[in-house]
């Protein structure tokens, strides 16, 4: 199922700038019992993305109403909202592009995430590096070619996830998730001011850690920082909190902080 500006369509114009240049952004959301988990946070992300990219804001109330109508009756699934600058002529200039296009799609929930939450996952170090790009730091833009190539690398190695570093060899994230690790009484997560996606679940977990009075540091850290960790986990809006049990030759227990965060997420929606 797909909606384009509230109409049931499954095609966009070939002149759409999201198609031509990745000129837009998106968010992916978990649907449970006909409602979106953390909708307000996802809406805020979409609004911030439009502001950062200078895209004319759509009618948010219309978008929300159409989206919620479509997910009514969905027991468990995924909803994705993409916003593009709309159609434009040849060339990079966005001048004259005022007809913002928003697209809603629904898809089944990846059931394997439930097993990942329970048992944890083994991840690899990705060989490919992502570039620093402060102009887009934090935004989930439609240009995901780095992630496509990283996912291709995972497929070739039969891995389910990977730890990704920047070209400066500092930790950024997973291929499709944000990254956290704990050492002693402090939790660390990569500083995303140079690049990476500031996920809704990342922000949720950061808030929970604050409520737990656990010290949290956003850092620029090398891969070796993970070798001294006592817990490692990854997050996104669909997978929730997933413990990492192995990276290369280093193994990790599924610790108390991970389990507590998972329990909190079951009730704090």
From TrEMBL:
<keyword id="KW-0663">Pyridoxal phosphate</keyword>
<protein>
    <recommendedName>
        <fullName>Aminodeoxychorismate lyase</fullName>
        <ecNumber>4.1.3.38</ecNumber>
    </recommendedName>
</protein>
<dbReference type="GO" id="GO:0005829">
    <property type="term" value="C:cytosol"/>
</dbReference>
<dbReference type="GO" id="GO:0008153">
    <property type="term" value="P:4-aminobenzoate biosynthetic process"/>
</dbReference>
<comment type="similarity">
    <text>Belongs to the class-IV pyridoxal-phosphate-dependent aminotransferase family.</text>
</comment>
<dbReference type="GO" id="GO:0046656">
    <property type="term" value="P:folic acid biosynthetic process"/>
</dbReference>
<comment type="subunit">
    <text>Homodimer.</text>
</comment>
<dbReference type="InterPro" id="IPR043132">
    <property type="entry name" value="BCAT-like_C"/>
</dbReference>
<dbReference type="InterPro" id="IPR001544">
    <property type="entry name" value="Aminotrans_IV"/>
</dbReference>
<dbReference type="GO" id="GO:0030170">
    <property type="term" value="F:pyridoxal phosphate binding"/>
</dbReference>
<dbReference type="Pfam" id="PF01063">
    <property type="entry name" value="Aminotran_4"/>
</dbReference>
<dbReference type="InterPro" id="IPR036038">
    <property type="entry name" value="Aminotransferase-like"/>
</dbReference>
<keyword id="KW-0456">Lyase</keyword>
<dbReference type="GO" id="GO:0008696">
    <property type="term" value="F:4-amino-4-deoxychorismate lyase activity"/>
</dbReference>
<dbReference type="InterPro" id="IPR043131">
    <property type="entry name" value="BCAT-like_N"/>
</dbReference>
<comment type="pathway">
    <text>Cofactor biosynthesis; tetrahydrofolate biosynthesis; 4-aminobenzoate from chorismate: step 2/2.</text>
</comment>
<dbReference type="InterPro" id="IPR017824">
    <property type="entry name" value="Aminodeoxychorismate_lyase_IV"/>
</dbReference>
<comment type="function">
    <text>Involved in the biosynthesis of p-aminobenzoate (PABA), a precursor of tetrahydrofolate. Converts 4-amino-4-deoxychorismate into 4-aminobenzoate (PABA) and pyruvate.</text>
</comment>
<dbReference type="InterPro" id="IPR050571">
    <property type="entry name" value="Class-IV_PLP-Dep_Aminotrnsfr"/>
</dbReference>
<keyword id="KW-0289">Folate biosynthesis</keyword>
């Amino acid at each position: 199922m797909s909606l384009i500006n509230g109409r049931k369509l499954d095609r966009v114009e070939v002149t759409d700038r999201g198609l031509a240049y990745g000129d837009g952004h998106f968010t992916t959301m978990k649907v449970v019992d006909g409602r979106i988990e953390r909708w307000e946070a996802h809406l805020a992300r979409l609004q911030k993305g439009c502001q950062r990219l200078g895209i004319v804001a759509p009618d948010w109330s219309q978008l929300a109403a159409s989206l919620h109508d479509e997910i009514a009756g969905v027991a468990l699934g995924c909803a994705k909202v993409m916003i593009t600058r709309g159609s434009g002529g040849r060339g990079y200039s966005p001048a004259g592009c005022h007809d913002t296009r928003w697209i809603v799609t629904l898809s089944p929930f990846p059931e394997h995430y439930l097993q990942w939450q329970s048992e944890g996952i083994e991840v690899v170090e990705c060989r490919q590096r992502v570039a620093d790009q402060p102009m887009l730091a934090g935004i989930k833009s439609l240009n995901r070619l780095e992630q496509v190539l990283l996912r291709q690398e995972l497929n070739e190695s039969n891995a389910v996830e990977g730890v990704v570093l920047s070209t400066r060899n500092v930790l950024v994230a997973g291929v499709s998730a944000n990254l956290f690790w704990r050492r002693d009484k402090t939790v660390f997560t990569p500083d995303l001011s140079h690049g990476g996606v500031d996920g809704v679940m990342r922000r949720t977990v950061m808030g929970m850690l604050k409520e737990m009075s656990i010290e949290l540091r956003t850092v620029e850290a090398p891969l070796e920082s993970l070798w001294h960790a006592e817990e490692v986990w990854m997050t996104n809006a669909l997978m929730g909190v997933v413990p990492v049990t192995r990276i290369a030759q280093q193994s990790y227990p599924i610790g108390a902080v991970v389990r507590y965060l998972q329990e909190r997420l079951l009730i704090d929606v």
